[in-house]
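hey m, so remember when u said the tokens were messed up on ur end? i reran from scratch. heres the input so u can diff it against urs
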Amino acid sequence: MDAYRDPARSFAERAADLVSRMTTEEKIEQIRSAAPALERLGIPEMDWWSEALHGVAREGTATMFPQSIGLGATFDPQLVGEIGKAVGQEARIKYEQYSSRGVRDLFKGLSLYSPNINIFRDPRWGRGQETYGEDPWLTGRMGVRYIRGLQGDDPAYLMTAACAKHYAVHSGPEPIRHEFDAEVSPKDLRETYLPAFEAAVREAGVAQVMGAYNRTLGEPCCASELLLQQVLREEWGFEGMVVSDFTALKDFYTGHKVTKDAPESAALALKHGCDMNLGFVYLSLPEALERGLVDEADIDKACRKVMEIRLRLGLYETPDSLRVDHALLDSPEHRALNLKAARESLVLLKNDGLLPLRGKFRSVAVLGPNAMSTRALMGNYHGEASEYVTVLDGIRRAAGAGVRIRYGVGCELTPYVQPASQDKKSGDDISVSFFDNVAPTFNLRELMGHGDREAEALAMAEESEAVVLVLGLDETVEGEEMMGGYSCDEFAGGDKKTLLLPSNQRKLLEDVLALGKPTAVVLLSGSALSVDDPRISALVQAWYPGSLGGQAVGELLFGDFSPSGRLPVTFYRRIEDLPPFTDYAMKNRTYRYFEGEPLYPFGYGLSYTSFAYADLSVTVGEEITVSVTVSNTGDREGREVVQAYVRWDGGDETQPLRHLCALGEAFLRPGEAAEVTLRIPKEALYTYRADGSRAVEPGSYTLWVGGGQPDERSAALTGVRPLSAGFVL
């Protein structure tokens, strides 16, 4: 048996033997994302680019879970791990369905460019929805669990090859990402931007790491000696594969101007440890070889990394651990998991007693552009679900036959229409020029859409006893590099310019509130919005809640379960309270460093019941063991997210105000109590110095345990404060 086919040998040995049998041209072809078949060695075609942020994406029918930011809001790493496992299984099933019929092209493979574990440092970033939020520790816990789920339980083989992205210091602005240099201090780099990636490598054993588009500290991330060699390979011991973001190597000479042409760019990336090119620049490696910019050993090294991952995915043999029952695809089990995630992701921000709606009203008007929108359920990088339950659908189902539901769209999502060329759909008989030549007083595009429907919505509201306004955004206005889409006073290239709702939605909200009806607002968005009006009786942040998200929203509004979601990002009052978008310093950013008063704090979320904490104890050993008694003091059963925050008392103003270091949960019936134990590894207590070095400092620490942060705004909103205790190391 040839060595590369022998499962008794190590994957490294097999990969080395396999690569030794390839020609130079064949090796170069195999380190591009669209790798052709190599039939003489039994290697089928494989396209490495597939997506799975919150479900298998762009491959047809699959379970569509809530967008990643919503998963972050669950504060439930175990649940995220279960979702990762389900997504990994469905990706394997989709691969087998397609490949068994000879289809192995784009988005049909076992390499999943997920999760996105960048830090959501600024609410303007359109891709922040793809992350788990603003906290490095929480992002690390979620990322580790998701990666383990995607890759499976076998210690050697991979169900799928997960990819931690975008390494590193990457969070907008979208329009300048191909030329931007993200400058950070050593402390911010190590304290904020790298910990989740370190956890992905050291704890989760992630198979792939994707370099970011931007430069960091002057070096393109996909060819950074600091990031790829010193930190990733040497310090963390990463043995997997590094892949560039799509066309990121082209940016070296077109955007960053650090090289002169494609061969130089290919050489720079390959020499600095980028094993695979998602794009086309590695097509120039033959010329780079001729010019002496790289040598055969550089190509061999990268190709061995790539082939080792393919072998671990089961290139020549399929162990039992990689066999998945195809009945699991879009199965009742996965749909139940999806609905559970949607329920846990919803955050109740405000409630003056209006919610739950059950038994209070005979008629409810459901208004707004996201009420009947399936697009607002999805979030970006989504797949296709076999069923979508919109918010309107969910409200109708939850309300039952005894409540009259009236619906009116009220307004478009935004007052701005995309360029005509993007409006035109396949098969349209009406030409773009027809639209462009219509007299300004006769807006045909608007008439073909919703037009002025506010009058209708207001009539619905007046004729109903209560109102649910379903507002927010969707992936058409916030997302990835929308250079040809919306560009106006409120959005730019996928990013937001403001924390406010679009102006037409603000008008609809104001006019509905002026009617004086009891009004609940449901926001569907991937980022923080500033919606603050005392006339709003209840406010729910629903994110992009997945294909069954509308069912979860309806059930929450009518009280079928008690909400337990928590904010994974700070909701600020105004954009002016923040540093410039391009400033990557953490000063005055996120709950750890923000100097002002937030609208709604990180970790905050209300319930339909109430919880009390008592008997906090802290034991110092190899790890910090915390126990606390949690009691349900209300009249509803519910889930309580138990949060622990810590601060080193010897720190100065350069240190965080506090940081999350442990999570737990309790499911309690009214009057029931339970002891919750939290274990804090000492590594979660790192203090970072100005030079980026870290240590668990000796001395005294303050620990807070409760349902949220120990800040004044959380206390004002909830009327309770977490317990606190000190300990000494």
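this time it looks ok to me. The chain is about 30% helix and 20% strand. if urs says something different then somethings off w ur setup not the seq
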